Amino acid sequence: MIAAPSQSLALARDEGRAAAARTRIAVQGLAKRFNASGREFVAVDDVSFEVKQGEFVALLGPSGCGKSTILNMVAGLLPRSGGRILIDGDTVETGEVNPRVGYVFQRDTLFPWRTVEQNIGYGLEIAGVPKSERTGRVATAVEKAGLAGFAQSFPRMLSGGMRQRVALMRTLILEPEILLMDEPFGALDTHTKLEMHKTLLEIWERERQTVLFVTHDLGEALTLASRIILLSARPGRLKEDFDVAIPRPRDPVAVRETAEFARLYSHIWHSLGEEFRRTRAD
Amino acid sequence: MSNSRTVILFWQLAILAVVLVVWQWGFEWSKTLLPKAYVPKILDPYFVAKPSLIWQSFLRLGCFADATGFTACIKGSDNNLWLATLVTLKNTWWGFLFGSASGIAAGLVLGRSDFLSRVFSPYIVALNSIPRIALVPLVILIFGLGDLSKIATAWLVVFFVVFFNTFEGTRAVDRDQIAAARLLGASEFTVLRTVVIPSALAWVFASLLPAVSFALIGVIVGEFIGAERGLGKLIIEAEARANASEMMVAIFVMMFVGILLAIAVRSLQSYLLRWQPQFEASA
Ligand SMILES: Nc1ncnc2c1ncn2[C@@H]1O[C@H](COP(=O)(O)OP(=O)(O)O)[C@@H](O)[C@H]1O
Ligand SMILES: [Mg+2]
């Protein structure tokens, strides 16, 4: 799976060009305050960043630092207390769904009463895509997710990894240009997680969606992302911003042996370590 | 191996046989064996009839043993067993259908709206506190002695049971599943149709099985209090003539009607909830 040098150089240049591309997500001075039992507390404080066309950005930070809160505000699921979020230049309105944006949850949100293919085809079905067209697209997606033979199964018959693959396909089949993912593999064991990384890398390296991927797992962020935004412990603030110049196509096991991985790992680890200590000190 | 199918069936049949034998001959035997004071009144055929008499009454009420022939007998009487069963079954079915449909609709609407559920909550609690049977004479006064009053009575008993379960089921829907559906492009109505209803269905069905029995009870009570036809009316007529075996016939037919309705609901349930583990086998 390790790419030939010339090819990886070309892909690295590709990513360089992506950085010059247009801004898809712009977060400006974002803030979120919650009212916890009468007391107001700041979950997210003055966060600004941009995600460009075709970038795979990991939002990394210790648990409870406000990563999901940020992502939910970007998705328009949660009202913000301050700041602005623009997607393709348009302000995100809470409660309005942007059809160009796909979202993958950490928690299992498959519909248990629908079979695998009915789950994957959900978005097409409610959009009124005719059955003849749907069947073909769903079959392709089932194939892509490595779920051939499970199309008629109900989610409870599947393993955690398979379920998350269904969830991923349920979102990807709508061909979103922007993908928001909230620790989608957080509940999986290490082995399954690596398999999922492989699947996601293959898909992304082929289709190059704009991705904002929330995680607290440094290895995961380095494996997948082309850029890592590091958040501080609560309240979530921007701490550092790294480019991950590991060539593609990447293999989730082989990346760990690259010098760039090792360098960034120890650097971010120390930075992240300070934040974990701050979390515990609270 | 004491719980294998055959052994279970053997004991079930054995119990049935003992009950039938004691019911048929127990009173005679105890009269010859026991002092008069100890003869169990509960076995007296005057009160509880006995299997052979019930069978004869069944043949007579069902027009199987009529000199004029089956069809002539059916046409000749206005509340024979067949007609009475049909009327009771029909009214139970419609009462159940209207009751559960309106209960489901109200439960979904109030379950999805915090505002409406808070506005209506005291009224629902108050209305639900009325013993439904107390309303039956009123219902008959309003809707008359015909089928409508029986359907309305069944509706009364079914509605609240189904309403409360649907309401709870609607409240218990996974918020993240709703968010996921919205992010996949679902409108409020589509969320209701494709997430809330399927998800609340398990709760709804948990109430439909008791509801179908309640509907039957409602109709029978309605027929007791004022009716022209039906199994309840048959019982009241038999009571007037102190005819226990005819009452027993009506009771047994009710039992079968109840079983049939329960089976119908049960099979619909296992089809619609086939995604749940406990219904997997029947899927
Ligand atoms: N609805 C809410 N009400 C009150 N506090 C909340 C709510 N949602 C999240 N929080 C708090 O905000 C902080 C950030 O939460 P979250 O964004 O879920 O963190 P992360 O995803 O980084 O683990 C946490 O301390 C959490 O307890
Ligand atoms: Mg989170």
What's this, in brief?
The complex is a heterodimer of chains A (282) and B (283). Chain A contains nine helices and ten strands. Chain A has helices at residues 5-19, 67-74, 116-120, 122-126, 131-144, 160-172, 190-207, 218-224, 259-281; strands spanning 23-36, 39-52, 56-60, 82-87, 90-91, 101-104, 178-182, 210-215, 227-231, 238-243.
Q: How would you portray this structure in words?
A:
The complex is a heterodimer of chains A (282) and B (283). Chain A is of the alpha/beta class and 282 residues long. Chain A folds into two domains: 6-100 and 196-281, P-loop containing nucleotide triphosphate hydrolases (Rossmann fold), CATH 3.40.50; 106-175, no CATH class. Chain A is built from nine helices and ten strands. Chain A has a six-stranded mixed β-sheet with strand order 6-7-8-3-9-10, sandwiched between helices. The longest helix of chain A is centred in the last third of the chain and has 23 residues, at 259-281. Chain A is globular and about 55 Å long. Chain A starts with a helix and ends with a helix. With 283 residues, chain B is mainly alpha-helical. Chain B folds into two domains: 1-48; 76-279, MetI-like fold (Orthogonal Bundle). Chain B has helices spanning 5-33, 45-48, 51-61, 70-76, 81-112, 114-129, 136-143, 147-171, 175-183, 188-225, 231-240, 244-272. In chain B, helix 5 (81-112) packs across helix 11 (231-240). Chain B is globular, with a radius of gyration of 24 Å. The two termini of chain B are 29 Å apart. The mean pLDDT of chain B is 90. The complex binds adenosine-5'-diphosphate and magnesium ion. Magnesium ion is lined by residues 67-68, 182-183 of chain A. Chain B: The chain crosses the membrane at residues 7-26, 92-111, 123-145, 151-167, 203-226, 247-265. Chain B: Keywords: Cell membrane, Membrane, Transmembrane, Transmembrane helix, Transport. Chain B: This is NitT/TauT family transport system permease protein. Chain B: It comes from Bradyrhizobium yuanmingense. Chain B: It is found in: Cell membrane.
